[in-house]
Amino acid sequence: MPALNFAARFAPLVESGQKRQTLRARRRDGRDPKAGQTLHLYAGMRTQGCRKLRQVLCKAVRPVRVSRGGDILVAGELLALSAGEAFARADGFTDVAELVDWFDRVHGLPFEGCLIQW
After folding, report:
1. Which residue among 52, 63, 65, 68 sits deepest, i.e. has the most Cβ atoms within 10 Å of its Cβ?
2. Backbone phi, then psi, for 13, in 5-degree steps?
């Protein structure tokens, strides 16, 4: 029963179904979500304002890499520009530039982790 927490800016997008994926650092204990598991999506976990946004079925978990130049590799394959833009929108960003900027500020680039899709 994997639980994922989302920043306040993403909560409405998760709740509405506009955000259909998330990029996460791999867990040190190796317990990353797996396809077929039920995901419990929250905002404000570990706070008094915690609320459940959705409960969804995990469709896929694949390795992902986001680079400073805007390159996005999913399972080792470089996304074309149009696919990269669609990828960024599915993750709650307006475009690849905003996604790259956010990951650079929050995680540092290059970012390597897993793409979790529902």
Report:
1. 65
2. -70, -40
Q: Tell me the pLDDT tens digit for each residue of 69-79.
A: 999 999 999 99
**Helix, strand or coil, per DSSP, at residue 34:** coil
Task: Give the 3-state secondary structure percentages of the chain, helix then strand then coil, rounded to 5.
Answer: 25, 35, 45
| Tokens encoding 16 | 């509405």
Report the greatest alpha carbon distance in the chain. Answer: 42
Average pLDDT value for residue range 70-97: 96
Tokens of 109: 């680039």
Q: What phi and psi values does residue 33 have, to the nearest 5 degrees?
A: -60, 155
**Nearest 5 degrees, angle CA 95-CA 98-CA 99?**
85
pTM over 0.90: yes
